[in-house]
Structures are given as C-alpha cells and as structure tokens.
Write a structure and sequence with these properties.
heterodimer; A: alpha/beta; Rossmann fold; 2 domains; six-stranded mixed β-sheet; about 35% helix; about 25% strand; B: mainly alpha; MetI-like fold
C-alpha cells in the first residue's frame, strides 16, 4: 500500500445540521458544523457526552443512526456530496474508501467467525483483492500493529484474544481495504491505561505509515493530543473552537476547553490519621477455584480516603465485595472499629450494614428505573433510621440539598436525570443510611471531566462535613491525585504498594507502579513519543 | 439552558431528552400512535368485557331458561334460534362470555401468581430451590397438557374450582420459566445488590426491585397465556369435562349444537349456529393477540428504520 498523504482536501463538511427523534419530537443534535480534512491528516473531535461527536463522526461517512436525519448542509467526500446519495450508492464507499472503528471491539466482532475472515471481509466483498492477497496483507497489518504471532492470530476467534488485541485487530479491519478515511470512535476508552498506550502507539504508526486521513473521537484531551494534528472542540452540537494540537494545548481560547481537563487541576493536600476505622487483614478470596485475592492487608484511617488503584482484573472491586460481605474470604477477616465483622452478609446486623455503604460505577444500573428519586433515597432512611412520613420527606430534601440538588428533583425517575445527577442521587442514597465508611467503586469513570470535577469536590466536602472515610476504587491516576490521602496499588490480586500519596507518587517505584504511572497520558503531544523511546519500542 | 454560562451547577446539568409526563398523558400518546390492528383488538376486548359484566341486563332471556321449541330456527323471538333443549342461543352466547372469559381470566391470574412468585424466588435464590423448582417444572412440562388436565379432572371431578386450579397449576410452568428467565437479567443489576446490602428481605427484593422491571414481558405473556387457557377450557368443555351444564359456555355450546351443521343444505342459518360460539372464541383470541403483538413490539424497543 502506498502513502496517500498529500495536501488536497479529502473531506469537507459545510454547515451540517442533524436532528434526532425521541420522545415524540425532533431534537437538534448537530447545529451547523463545518469541518475540513486533508488527505493524511488526523483530526481530533472532543467534547462531553451529548456534544454530538459520534453523530458528526458517522455523518462524515454519510451515515446517520436510525432515528436521525440530516436536515441541511453538505458532506463532500472527494468531490461527491454524500447527503445527495442513496444508501446503495454510499455503500460503495463504506467499508471500502471509508471505514469505522467502534468503541467496543468486543461488541463489534461476530463471535462465530475467525478474526482474519472478519478483517478482510469487506475488502474481498468489494472485489478489491483476492482472498490470498487480502489475507497476506492482513497478516502484515497484524505485524505492523505489534500483535503477537501475526501469522496465526487471525485464525483465532474474538473471545480468544484480549480486549486491547481485539481493538487493534479492529484497526486492522479498518485498514484492510486501504481506505482514504478512518473514523475512530473512542477506541481506547474501554481499555486500561497500560493497554491504551500500546493501542494508541499502534494506531498512530499505521495511520502515519499509510497516510490515511482519520477522525479521532474521544472525551479525553490527553489521548487526542497524542493522535491528532488538529483538534476541534464540540459542545451542544456546535463548534467551540478549532486549532492545531500544540496551539490548543498551550493556549486554549475558550474557558470551556480549559474545563475539559479540570479534574487534573484539583489537588488535595494529604493528611495523616492514626485512628484506623476499617482494616482488611490477611484476606485470601476465591471465585470458585480462581484465586482472586492473595494475602491482602489494607488499613483505612478515620476520616481519610484510601485509593485502590490497578488495572481491570487486579482485584480492586473484589476487595470491596469482601468488605461489604458479598464475598466471603477463605482466609482472613475484616475489622470495623477493631471488631471483626461476620464474613458473610447474612451474619451481619442491621447496624453493621448501615455503617458501610457503597456507591457504584454505573449510576444507571445502580438505581431501580421504576423508582422515583424519593423512593430511592427515602428507603435507606426509613429502613435504618425508622423515619416516617413528614420527617422522612424532610430528610430526603435535606439530603438533596447536601448534594447540590433541590426539592424539584424529588418526583423524577432516573431516566429523567443526567449522568452526573444520577451519581449524586446514588451518593445521597448512601448518605441516607448515615454511614461511617463509604466505598466508591469507580464512581467517576463513566462521567465527563467537568462532571467528574463536581462529584469529586462534593465527595471531598461531604468527607469534611460528616467525617466520612472513603475507600476509592479507580484506575484513573488524576482522580487519585484529586481525592486520596493514601494509595494502595494492586496488581493480579496482590497489593504492590501501600502508603501516603506523596510516597507512592515519588520515586523510586516498584516496577508495576512505574509502568502504571508512566502509562497515564499527559497533556503533552510528545508524551507518547517520548514514552515509547524510553520503553524502547 | 445553561448554554451561555460556563459556571457549573449540578441542578442545571442538561438531563436526557425524556420529559416528565404523567402516566395518563403517555398512555394517550401511545394509544394515538397504536396501529389499527391494536385499536381493533382493544375495541373487541372492551365489547367482550362489557358483555361479560352486564350479561343479565343485555341478554333477552335467562341463561338456563328453557323454551318449548328445541332447535327453533332464527326468528324475531330467538335471534339465533334455540338449542337442543330449547334454550335461547343468543342469551347463552352472552352468558358464555361471562363464564368462559371469567374462568379463563381467573385461571390465568392464578397461574401468574403461582408461576411468577416461584419464578422470582428461583431467580433470586439460584441454588437448590431453583434447581428443585426448575426440574419439577420440566417434569410437568414433559406431559402433554391437555391429556394431563383430562386425567386430573377425571380424578378430582370437573367442578369449576378444580378446573381453575388444575389448569392454573399446569399453565404456571410456562409462566415460571418466563419469569425466571427475565428476572435473571434484573437480579444481576447493581440496584438489587444495593437492596441486598441494605439487608432487605426476599419479599421486598421481589416486589419492589425486580417485579416492576419485568412487568412488560409478563403483561405481554399474560395476554398470550390468557388465549391459551381460554382455548384449553373451550377444548375441555367440548370434550365434556370442562364447565358443566346448565352453565353456558362457548366450548360446550359448539359441541351441543355441532350436529346442526349437517343441515347446511336445508337451512344455512341453522347450520351456522354451532359456528357462532366458535367465532366468538376466535374473535377474542385474535383481538387479544393483536394487542399483545403491539405491546411486544413496543417493549422490545426496536426502532423502525426510516
């Protein structure tokens, strides 16, 4: 394949307007956006959820999701206005001259077909290449993407490779027809930081090598900084600003752009505390015969925050399950205020259950969609404190005010709330029980930066007001810096390191902590290049 | 909204596009959008329910009132003629709505109470209780339902109460399976875990956390089950072990007047008499299915493409 880069315009979107149909009305999703992309150029699209990033990314291919319609503007791809073409005409472009890499590779592959067949399917179907030729090229792409065993990995099925590998194979699938344009829609959002680095490096190299133009959609500015030549910030379906990557990072024009990395600006001074409220002692736990936790020791000081950090599969959430009693440890125990807690949920008294509350990652599934905000918050208040009628309502309103919402939310259903509001209601539900320890399991990782900032500040304030102790499970180092006093680094079911935040974040580090910390993308366009050099890729 | 301000407030955060509306307004919107078939189905169901409730007021004669002329042709006094011992067919059709539909409704409700409760319990328990209930249900389902019902009715005698209980128990197996399957998807949700962590008992978890979320498929199944129960009762009555005379019932009415169909070459109208209750059965079944189809389509969440 030859490098397609030159300075001619490949894609030009003029004053594009898109509407989506929901709740009996048409809503404007994209309100007149212009976009230009040269051959071989990478454009980053960034914004919070609901900004219209994905809709615009798909529209660049002339595609709209079911329930959406284009109401105005032009999409000129290589001189052809896609808005005026029928689906069957556009199909000649899709999977051929323009391809798409979706967020969840696991959900995008057919589990019943071998990877190499799926990688080359559209290429062969479009008659671009013969099967042998396409297979050879796919293997070359696997090699270029740094996949292990590039000769044979294509013979596997999707469930036989890891998430990061699958995401790279999807990139190979997108590259297979040698397209002019690839749209990447949050391709690394679901990956761990350590895996993300490899996938980013592979994607960047391959796009550069073949000179393919790309649109890279993400909500993480530090990721897009590594990938894109130019960045466009979207909000409410409109452009906020557009600039070359370096210029945007150095001097963003709009306040909104700055708020996109606001979590990184929160810093919490750490405090020591001698009183230990909760202690996990020598815990070994199993799922069936699988050894998930190996000799875990964690101490939670009173009124402080301990952050549990690690990749997925490191056993962070399992620690929470052991503390709450959902999973009985095989060996070891959990001590609350120096008294051992019964290992299983059934053995614990109401009082013990009340003192330890939990907040979940996905506020969507942590609230019953058929209950109103009042039902959700009032139940723990009446269950534990035995409040009734008038007092109960007063308590609910008081809790709503504590989380910066007001009485008007009391009759809403979860589906009538935004992501941040949902998480706040979950916090209020935990507070309603008057807990002393709150376990926060990735509570901010599903939220936009600006909303994350609000939640983290709220949690900090509540800690101060109510003297709460938090166990904060997360994989995001910026969040750890913003909230914790102490940090526990976990890997493969073992504690790698535990200590005060300042100790953990200052060298020397154990090998794993080093890898984890260095993999966190920074707001510097040269970060990835430097990192790869340092790691000798 | 807070488009022009860059200050952040939690309450001002833009929620999803779903607007707060009362259940009644939503229902009205849905009904307006309903396809013609669903509207037809709802209309027929309302008519049948009306007939069942107000049967004594609508019917010209009593349910078991015997007139001197058996097999009377269709005339002004007896719109659809009389049956083999001289009872007014039209009146019996109307009372039949009450008996057949009423018994079928009671049976379906009972089947859902049994199957639903056990299905939920099995889904939450997921261990010995689940295993025991599921295998028992497998055994019950292995025996053809109609034959099993016939055997049981011969053993216990065919009273209305026995009929309801036997068919309900046999039918609850299917309800059990469905409830268990859909509950399993809900049981793993975090909000159920939250309730368990709070120390709620199993009945609260069943009623408040799971049941409201599995209701749509259950309601759809209720409609379908109702049809099947209704047909089984009609079939059992036709075989003579269902609802007993003199109680009017569509299934037995078909059987009692079946021989009239031979007279088609002499009197077409009289020959149609046994078909009338059969048509009533068919009409209600079709109507309920129309509504269920519409409901299933709605709850499946499939959006029409373009």
């Amino acid at each position: 394949m030859k490098n397609k880069k030159d300075n001619t315009t490949l894609l030009q979107i003029k004053d594009l307007k898109i509407e989506g149909f929901s709740d009996e009305r048409w809503h404007k999703i994209i309100k007149g956006v212009n976009l230009e992309l040269k051959r071989g150029e990478v454009l980053g699209l960034i914004g919070e959820s609901g900004a219209g990033k994905s809709t615009l990314g798909l529209a660049a291919m002339g595609y709209t999701q079911p329930g959406c319609r284009i109401t105005g503007g032009q999409i000129n791809f290589d001189g052809v206005d896609l808005t005026k073409r029928t689906d069957s005409e556009k199909r000649k472009y899709w999977g051929n001259r323009m391809t798409y890499v979706a967020q969840s590779a696991a959900a995008s592959f057919n589990p019943a077909h071998r990877l190499i067949n799926q990688t080359t399917e559209s290429t062969i179907r479009a008659g671009l290449k013969k099967q042998n030729e396409a297979f050879d090229e796919a293997r070359a792409l696997y090699d270029a993407l740094n996949l292990p065993n590039p000769e044979t990995i294509g013979e596997r099925y999707p469930h036989q490779v890891s998430g990061g590998q699958l995401q790279r194979i999807m990139t190979a699938m997108a590259m297979s027809p040698n397209p002019d344009l690839i749209v990447f829609d949050e391709p690394t959002t679901a990956l761990d930081v350590t895996t993300q680095v490899e996938v980013l490096a592979a994607m960047r190299d391959i796009v550069k090598t073949y000179g393919t133009a790309a649109i890279y959609i993400t909500h993480d500015l530090s990721v897009v900084a590594q990938m894109a030549d130019r960045i466009k910030v979207l909000r409410y379906g409109e452009e906020v600003e557009e600039a070359m990557t370096r210029k945007m990072l150095k001097s963003p024009k709009e306040d909104y752009t700055k708020s996109l990395w606001s979590v990184r600006s929160i810093q919490k001074p750490e405090k020591k505390s001698k009183d230990i409220i909760l202690e996990v002692k020598n815990v070994d736990a199993f799922y069936g015969s699988f050894h998930v936790l190996k000799n875990i020791n964690i101490k939670l000081p009173l009124g402080r925050t301990v952050a549990l950090v690690g990749e997925s599969g490191s056993g962070k959430s399992t620690v929470a399950r052991v503390i709450t009693g959902l999973l009985e440890p095989k060996i070891g125990s959990v001590k609350f205020k120096n008294r051992e807690l019964p290992p299983s949920l059934k053995g614990r008294t109401k009082d013990q259950l009340q003192k330890i509350q939990m907040i979940y990652q996905m506020a969507d599934v942590a609230m019953n969609p058929k209950q109103t905000v009042y039902d959700i918050i009032s139940r723990p208040a009446s269950f534990f404190a035995g409040l009734t009628a008038a007092n109960l309502r007063k308590r609910v309103v008081e809790l709503l005010e504590q989380i910066d919402l007001d009485e008007s939310f009391i009759d809403r259903y979860p589906s009538e709330l935004s992501g941040g509001q949902k998480q706040r209601i979950c916090i209020a539900r935990a507070l309603a029980a008057n807990p002393e320890v709150v376990i926060c399991d990735e509570v901010t990782s599903a939220l936009d930066q600006i909303v994350q900032e609000g939640i983290l500040k709220l949690l900090g304030r509540l800690q101060k007001d109510l003297n709460l102790s938090y166990i904060f499970i997360t994989h995001d180092i910026a969040t750890v810096k913003a909230i914790s006093d102490e940090v526990v680094v976990m890997n493969e079911g073992e504690v790698v390191e535990q200590g005060l935040k300042s100790e953990i974040f200052s060298p020397p580090h154990p090998e794993y902590t080093e890898l984890l910390l260095s993999s966190v993308p920074e707001m510097d366009p040269d970060w990835l290049t430097d990192l790869l050099k340092a790691r000798n890729y | 909204m807070n488009k022009d301000t860059n200050t952040y407030s939690a309450a001002g955060e833009v929620g999803s596009v779903l607007e707060s509306r009362s259940t009644f307004t939503r229902l009205k919107i849905e009904l307006n959008k309903a396809p013609l078939t669903a509207k037809f189905g709802i209309f027929i169901i309302i008519v049948f329910v009306g007939l069942a409730i107000f049967a004594p007021l609508i019917a010209p004669y009593g349910e078991a009132e015997v007139f001197p002329e058996p097999y009377a042709p269709w005339n002004a006094n007896h719109i659809f003629g009389t049956d083999q011992i001289g009872r007014d067919i039209f009146s019996r059709l109307i009372f039949g709505a009450r008996n057949t539909v009423g018994v079928a409704f009671a049976t379906t409700i009972l089947a859902f109470l049994i199957g639903g409760a056990l299905g939920l319990a099995a889904a939450i328990n997921r261990s010995y209780l689940d295993l025991f209930l599921s295998r028992t249900v497998d055994v019950l389902m292995a025996i053809p339902q109609l034959i099993f019902a016939l055997v049981l009715l011969s053993i216990f005698g065919s009273t209305i109460i026995n009929l309801i209980i036997i068919i309900a128990v046999l039918d609850s197996t299917r309800v059990f399976r469905l409830t268990r399957a859909v509950s399993l998807n809900v049981v793993v949700m975090d909000y159920v875990e939250v309730a368990k962590l709070r120390g709620e008992n199993i009945s609260w978890v069943m009623r408040k956390e799971i049941l409201p979320n599995i209701l749509p498929p259950l309601i759809a199944e209720f409609g379908l089950r109702f049809c099947f129960v209704f047909l089984s009762i009609a079939a059992l009555s036709f075989l003579g072990v269902g609802i007993q005379p003199p109680t009017a019932d569509w299934g037995s009415m078909v059987r009692e007047n079946a021989s009239l169909i031979q007279f088609a070459q002499y009197d077409l109208k009289a020959a149609m008499t046994p078909l009338l209750p059969a048509a009533a059965i068919a009409l209600l079944t079709v109507a309920v299915n129309f509504v269920v189809d519409w409901f299933l389509h709605k709850t499946s969440g499939i959006k029409d493409e373009k």
